[in-house]
Design a protein that fits this description.
Length: about 375
């Protein structure tokens, strides 16, 4: 498998292997965007972050500071416009003023050190690379302060992170600022607002804002443009507008090189066709697990078509499933288990089923397969 990975250029429901049904995995981004994920939030609510100091537990401010080497590295690269020592002083003073929580304390901080809010954004991102919870907690609060001061990049960062984690309900202030930016014609704000509205099941409003973003004066020359087009394509596909969806995916893929767009574009091609494989390879090269899985399905279909009897040698099909399974993709674990069994490696197959059993999305199928294998083994031995 390790040798196989070298051939992947930039690696950054249940499917039964021996079933005649299609093995292609086709997760919908539209549906995924509507699910509230239970992952830990990367951010804290703006209310809590800006609340009175008496509600925050006493901690040693020094423990929240980043290692000086990170600040030195950022300074040496030219990203940090202030000295590492001054950056440390900014963060110490930030915590001191935050604890007092007087009106306008964030503006006072910037005035004292003659910095703009973009410096706070960079310091937050440096802190977020640190391992300690207290450091990442400070990172979150600093980013929220930068947003409060009107730094657009901070607001975009907060909303983008919240969309990824599915935790949005506590971000009234950043969302309000996002809405203001969108109404002012900022294309990235429009796109992010559209994605937010999509999580609220407001498809019509979401599509309207997304189209305003991608069809505005800036064209597609803004960050998140390709993701906006993918969201548009998913909305249109869910409505049965295949032609419109294909156009959105094609623009995102061929003009903006969005790997997710390549994956969904592959779904609209003829099954097991060369063009479908080309699009899947583009998606797989960027680490999309479903693409690896589907490439395995295509290879398996070719093997079946070329074999007069049961397939015994699985070649590249096994390699693709193995790569996806190793990175935690449940359906590929199930397929790989079946391949191992067909090759006479039942113990190895059982190990993959045991791994799949730990994944909620395929647990039931894995348990059923394990029971079936044990029943067959018992009947054979008797």
């Amino acid at each position: 498998m390790s040798s196989f990975r070298r051939y992947l250029p930039i690696i950054g429901k249940n499917c039964r292997l021996l079933s005649p049904r299609s093995l292609l995995h086709t997760t919908s981004i539209l549906e995924a965007s509507r699910r509230v994920q239970r992952a830990p939030s990367l951010l804290v609510s703006s209310q809590k972050a800006q609340g009175p100091a008496i509600n925050r537990p006493m901690i040693d401010p020094e423990k929240a500071l980043p290692p000086i080497v990170l600040l030195q590295s950022a300074s040496k690269s030219g990203a940090l416009e202030i000295s590492p020592d001054k950056a440390m002083d900014v963060l110490r003073r930030y915590q001191e003023l935050e604890r007092g929580a007087t009106v306008g304390w964030e503006q006072r901080l910037c005035k004292e050190f003659e910095i703009n809010p973009s410096i706070l954004v960079l310091l937050s991102m440096i802190l977020n690379r640190c391992p300690k919870h207290v450091q990442r907690s400070l990172a979150r609060r600093v980013m929220l302060s930068a947003s409060e001061l009107g730094e657009e990049s901070a607001t975009f960062y907060i909303i983008s992170s919240a969309l990824r984690t599915g935790v949005l309900k506590d971000y009234a202030s950043p969302l309000k600022r996002l809405g203001t930016l969108a109404k002012a014609g900022n294309p990235r704000a429009m796109a992010l607002l559209g994605k937010f509205l999509l999580t609220q099941n407001k498809e019509n409003e979401a599509l309207d804002w997304i189209r305003r973003a991608t069809r505005g004066p800036a064209g597609l020359d803004f960050e998140d443009a390709s993701e906006a087009l993918v969201s548009e394509g998913q909305i249109l596909k869910s409505r049965g507008d295949v032609e419109g969806a294909q156009a959105a995916f094609r623009t995102a893929a061929l003009e903006l090189d969005n790997p997710t767009a390549y994956f969904y574009l592959s779904q609209l091609e003829e099954r097991n066709s060369r063009q479908q494989e080309v699009y899947l390879l583009k998606a797989a090269s960027s680490g999309i697990l479903e693409a690896w899985h589907n490439l395995g399905a295509i290879e398996l279909a070719r093997l079946r078509a070329a074999s007069a009897g049961p397939v015994r040698e699985f070649g590249m099909a096994k390699e693709w499933f193995q790569v996806a399974a190793a990175d935690g993709f449940g359906p590929s674990m199930l397929n790989l288990a079946q391949i191992c069994k067909a090759e006479g490696q039942a113990e190895e197959g059982m190990r993959w089923l045991e791994k799949a059993e730990k994944l909620p999305e395929v647990k039931e199928q894995a348990l059923k397969m394990m029971d079936d294998w044990r029943i067959n083994q018992d009947s054979t031995s008797s």
